[in-house]
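This part of the workshop introduces the protein records we will be handling. A learned vocabulary of local backbone shapes supplies the integers on the structure line. Getting from the letters to the tokens is the skill we practise here. As an example, a complete record with its sequence and its structure tokens follows.
=====
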Amino acid sequence: MSNIPNRKQAPAVATPGNLPHLLRTPLKIDGFMPCYAIEGGAQDVVSIEVVFPAGTRYEEKPLQAASCLHLIKEGTESFSAEEISGVIDFFGAQLSTEVSKDHASISLIVMNKYLGQLLPVFSEICCKPVFHESELMLYAKKSRSALEVNLQKVEFICRLAFSKLLFGNHPYRDDFSPDDYDKLKVTDIAGFFEKNYNIENAFCIISGMETNRAAAMVSSAFAKNKIEKAGTSGAANATGWSYSRGEVFVPKEGALQSAIRMGMAAPARTSEDYPAFYLIHTALGGYFGSRLMQNIREEKGFTYGIGSSINILEHGAYFVITTQVGAQHTLATIAEIEKEIYRLRNEPILVDEFELIQNYVAGTLLQSMDGPFELSGKLKSMIVNNLPEGYYPKFLEAIFAATPVQVQIIARKYFEPKQMSLSVAGCYE
């Protein structure tokens, strides 16, 4: 009976072990784009991700970046859309794309024994896509319909309004409408690719098993499809943005709920204030047991969920609180959010809660580095945000070195409700 755990007593908190030390040194292979490798895993699978400086901030017309990235896999000089889809399915591979404000990436996950069959297709997708009018029309029609539906949702309306408040006229701003899909032409998509998808400005992360072998194969495949380009990414847009407070209410007649976003500029990851800032974010709304969840969900019952996030950009960062509440609770929710922020400013976090938050941050960080594919995401973040080697272990050290009083000082420095932007979409009742 002595082996039966006491369910009334919480288990001891385990001290986090050492985090992996990610190297920012590219492999020494013949090639024209830096290739980084993360070896590991229990399955004979490899992931190849090619990252281009081709995010939404480089657009000359709205929706160019996302449209280009979607259509990039719909046909190349040697392979039709059907052939690409067929070979991906036949070998059980996974082809995916992702676009952010700063970057666009194309990823392939495949068993090592089939890598040779997939790389000719993958390298052509990255280097030699062919954009067809019929594919653009089909994509634009579907996407326009989806956007029209989203624009009826208060959460989506609120997100766009907050982006305009936060970024003003900066290229980071999200500003598009359904009609913008009708204005896109194939020449716009091809021009965006030509200008921003220069393989010499890209980098590659290879993770999984047999990464050195995969890297040599990647180098060979891309060398065959490389195209010399005079143009480079639109570096003119690569500037920081200056935050200024704003407030907007977008009415939505008949809405039963209101969407709320509240936030401001945040310190960069390289700032000495960032670890303490991250602890404040976690305490306020960064996990299920956060103060906003306990207050606004558990005690008040205003919402099913409320949370906060820190969004890192290449030229800035911002913090935002997001929720949807019953329309009749809109003003009360905003008041409670401000109340919880002032509590963090005026009262140091008690030791038990502080240690819980520290351990939660450590646990989620360890979880996010569990395996080669997860580590590749962290390495990608280090590269695009120009973080030094050893950043994550040092970040974790700073998390555990922080004290409640130090964190309160940072809360007073950054977290002032009167300096935070606020967007609301829905109804005030």
